[in-house]
Design brief:
Elements (H helix, E strand, L loop, with lengths): L2 H13 L6 E3 L5 E3 H20 L2 H14 L2 H21 L15 E7 L6 E7 L9 E10 L2 E12 L3 H16 L7 H18 L1 H4 L3 E2 L1 E7 L3 E7 L3 E6 L2 E4 L10 H6 L4 E2 L7 E2 L9 E2 L12 E6 L4 E7 L1 H4 L4 H9 L4 H14 L6 E7 L3
Antiparallel strand pairs: 1-2, 3-4, 4-17, 5-6, 6-7, 6-8, 7-14, 8-9, 9-15, 10-11, 10-16, 12-13, 16-17
Helix pairs in contact: 1-2, 2-3, 3-4, 5-6, 10-11
Length: about 375
């Protein structure tokens, strides 16, 4: 199927979405023209998956569908189960009312909870003021694996496009959990998976583009052991008895200047601007960024802790939040709300109020009711 054909279908769907013409599905059921075009879009997704088999294409085509049609119509036509099959497992961006995809829209929010414990989570993502599509992505979900419950939480803050953070959203946790050593050596497994994922991104740069992404990931094992890893300046902060404890390291050009220069790069310090690698990138570690990769690192800093009765809240957020808010301020706000979704929404709202220009995304995990 050619790109011209797919473009025609998508454009047709948009142009005619308000028309009241009716057509019939292959099963003979009458539908509005809008619904018929939706079904065609699903057929395009299937065709693309059969031909290319790439998760990124699923991400792209599902975004086309969600941007052009109301989610309620999707649910009515194909049912929740099929929606879950196509989108939920890989994109992790839904709440109980089927919120639209994060990319390409101004905001997204949702929540969930553990199936066996008291842990709850909420998330909120808000597009910044820059004139480009939303580049922040997240993961927030619980999964059952080999008799264990894992809480998987992440923020991916993209730059120069959204394809790399979208790829991370689909693949990074999967790659971590595929490591055979994960249950005996989580730290080594996380480190290896980060490296393998970055290599995969670089090898597919012709499809994924020249951009990159930060990452902060948190894995909660059976509600007790917490593993946190990061690349770049997205951050994880744990509240212990109300005191903010930063569990990640901000990877900034000034603090890792030696490594950058050893690799043949340089750090610029232009007046009125932040330090940048080769005058371009404001972080010293990132996924992707093929043109700068010879001067960058993608190995994560990794920390772990056993949660006790003093551990109450974990906040993961992109630098759109941390540029305008201290760790302690974020923890203080999050602890005011028993509902972590309300806490996450309040954090992003406060960052906007403080005139944060960047995309703002955060996940709040509450360990006790």
């Amino acid at each position: 199927m050619s790109s011209n054909t797919t473009t025609y279908y998508v454009m047709t769907a948009k142009k005619k979405e308000e028309e009241e013409e009716t057509s019939k599905t292959p099963h003979g059921t009458k539908t509005t023209n809008k619904e018929h075009q939706l079904i065609l879009s699903f057929e395009l997704i299937n065709e693309r998956l059969r031909i290319l088999g790439a998760g990124l294409d699923l991400k792209f085509w599902s975004r086309v569908v969600y941007q052009e049609f109301d989610v309620e119509i999707l649910v009515e036509l194909v049912g929740t189960a099929l929606l879950n099959f196509y989108f939920m497992d890989s994109l992790c961006c839904f709440n109980a009312s089927y919120s639209k995809l994060v990319g390409g829209r101004s905001s997204s929010t949702g929540k969930g909870r553990s199936n066996v414990g008291l842990v709850k989570f909420g998330f909120s993502l808000v597009k910044g003021k820059a004139n480009h599509p939303m580049e922040d992505y997240h993961v927030a979900k619980f999964v059952q694996l080999q008799g264990h419950e894992l809480g998987l939480f992440a923020i991916y803050d993209g730059h120069l496009g959204e394809t790399v953070p979208a790829y991370l959203q689909k693949h990074l946790f999967s790659n971590i959990l595929k490591e055979e050593e994960f249950w005996v050596d989580p730290q080594r497994s996380i480190s290896k998976a980060y490296e393998k994922t970055d290599q995969a991104i670089l090898s597919h740069s012709s499809d994924l583009g020249r951009g990159g992404s930060t990452a902060v990931t948190a894995i909660l094992i059976n509600g007790q052991r917490l593993w946190v890893a990061n690349v770049g300046d997205s951050r994880a902060v744990l509240s212990t008895a109300g005191v903010a404890v930063q569990m990640t390291t901000d990877h900034e050009p000034n603090t890792e200047r030696g490594s950058i220069e050893d690799k043949g790069g340089f750090v610029s310090n232009m007046p009125g601007d932040v330090p940048r690698v080769n005058g371009q990138l404001a972080v010293s570690r990132a996924f992707g960024d093929k043109s700068l990769k010879s001067h960058l690192r993608s190995d994560p800093d990794i920390q772990n802790t056993i949660l006790d009765g003093r551990s109450d809240v974990l906040v993961l957020a992109s630098d759109g939040l941390w540029k305008v808010m201290s760790n302690q301020e974020a923890v203080d706000i999050a602890r005011k709300f028993k509902d972590p979704q309300k806490a996450a929404k309040q954090l992003t709202a406060e960052a906007l109020k403080r005139d944060s220009k960047d995309d703002i995304s955060c996940v709040v995990v509450r360990f006790r009711g």
